[in-house]
């Protein structure tokens, strides 16, 4: 019995700005900083590989001295709305109802909600009262693929069931107004807000690419490389500048043994469905795969159009492949990285 991905749909927040339109707000924020530093920051925004980003709040609200409580209130309200819309879109694509779902996984790391997001969706859409819930919080950018791994394992053990993984993120709600560190600046330059939902099924007659294998890869002694610190001002980003180099050093061990375990090599993979962590990470991965004759054009396009939306971003990349009429037998490698430090992998076959 196979587990298939039957539908994916994204949902964008109501506010958006091009990077060019964001620059005046950055200039205002940087007022009082040394001129050379200001020029460096503006150049960083302009060269981040992100043309446009979406947000749950207007730029004015992001760059105001709002409290953690106020931003988290906006996050909570908008996360529910975005998740509901993404779930409804996905159900419509699959011609299903909310009551057809047996397992709901919600992933988010950019705000705090108890009860978690899934509880609100169950009530709003009157989903099954015996639906199984799993909220995933602390896995960051890797959580979208992590959620799919958990859903796949549930469905593998339970024939004729369906699961949804809903990722909702608002990195703009974590922006630190009084933090002029390069970590905070780089985060502001590459991140945007967004939501996405993916539907998986263990029904024999449901269609879509099958998940043939899954695996996690854990980097030892790398907890300090990525994550958040909880401050009075909110969630302060941790993003080590060594992340791209660390990924590059581990890449052969992440990709090749996983494929070999499944009787494959990289030459037999048709599609690379990678999370766009940022321009440097994209360049690192592109260099590693370019020599193998592969491309990550869809990953670059998502980063350019939306920015890095943490856990939701790789699902935006997946949707681009799902919307194409791909040949039967084509194989895809899905990959994302997140705090821990870890890499999550899925092998797909159309």
Q: Would you kindly provide a brief summary of this structure?
A:
By secondary structure, the chain is an alpha/beta fold. It has helices spanning 19-29, 35-46, 59-62, 68-94, 117-125, 143-157, 182-190, 243-261, 279-290, 297-306, 313-322; strands spanning 4-11, 15-18, 52-55, 103-107, 132-136, 162-169, 194-201, 210-218, 226-231, 234-239, 271-274, 331-338, 342-349.
Question: What is the second-level CATH architecture of the largest domain?
Answer: 3-Layer(aba) Sandwich
The count of helical stretches stands at 11
Percentage of residues in DSSP E strands: 15-25%
Spell the H/E element sequence.
EEHHEHHEHEHEHEEEEHEHHHEE
Poorly predicted sequence stretches spanning 5 or more consecutive residues: none
Give a count of the beta strands, DSSP E runs of length 2 or more: 13
Structural class determined from secondary elements = alpha/beta
In helices, the fraction of residues equals 25-40%
